[in-house]
Amino acid sequence: MRLRPLAAFALCAAAAVPTVLGAQRVSGTVSLPGGAPGGGVLVVAQDSAGAEITRAVTSDEGRFALPLPRPGFARVLLQRVGFMPTVVLERSLAAAEVVQVEPVLSSTNVTLPPRSAVSPSSCGNSASDRQYVGILMEELRKALTAV
């Protein structure tokens, strides 16, 4: 009688394996603009609303494999501290689809709006102050995530 529960478990486990093994994935090797490997780059997958689905960090050789939890739209970005994101992929993936990419990172630097201190108490809550802090926080997020 112990054999039936074991057989039922084995059947359920076997049914789940194709889903895991057949999951969609984006993988590849990232290069810097000069051709060197892009190691330590943050690879982020987003859904159509821009919410993060999953992420990975490239190896020292620039390689990554980003499994996606479900079929559907995915936007895959490369993020490196101090540089604008590089869009690698922006489309729907079918169930079990595997996409191989060989992207080159953007060489466009992140730029901060000019700031000047008028007086020690000139810090405020203006739109430009919030933009400045937002850019700094995004760069900090990238740095902490890739470590």
Beta-strand level of the residues, as a percent range? 25-35%
State the end-to-end distance: 52 Å
Strand order within the widest sheet?
3-2-5-6
Secondary structure tally: strands: 7
Count of helix runs? 2
Parts with pLDDT < 50 across at least 5 consecutive residues = 10-21
Identify the overall geometry.
globular
Structure commentary:
The radius of gyration is 21 Å and the shape is globular. The strands form 2 sheets. A 4-stranded antiparallel sheet has the order 3-2-5-6, with no helix packed on it. The longest helix has 19 residues, at 3-21. It has helices at residues 3-21, 127-145, and strands at residues 25-29, 42-46, 52-57, 63-67, 72-79, 86-93, 98-101. It contains 2 helices and 7 strands. The protein is 26% helix and 28% strand. It is an alpha+beta fold.
Give descriptors for this structure.
147 residues; 4-stranded antiparallel beta sheet; 2 helices; single chain; 26% helix; globular; alpha+beta; 7 strands
Write the layout of secondary structure elements.
Blueprint: H1 3-21, E1 25-29, E2 42-46, E3 52-57, E4 63-67, E5 72-79, E6 86-93, E7 98-101, H2 127-145
Parallel strand pairs: 1-7
Antiparallel strand pairs: 1-4, 2-3, 2-5, 5-6
Short description:
The protein is of the alpha+beta class. It has helices spanning 3-21, 127-145; strands at 25-29, 42-46, 52-57, 63-67, 72-79, 86-93, 98-101. A hairpin with a 5-residue loop joins strand 2 (42-46) and strand 3 (52-57).
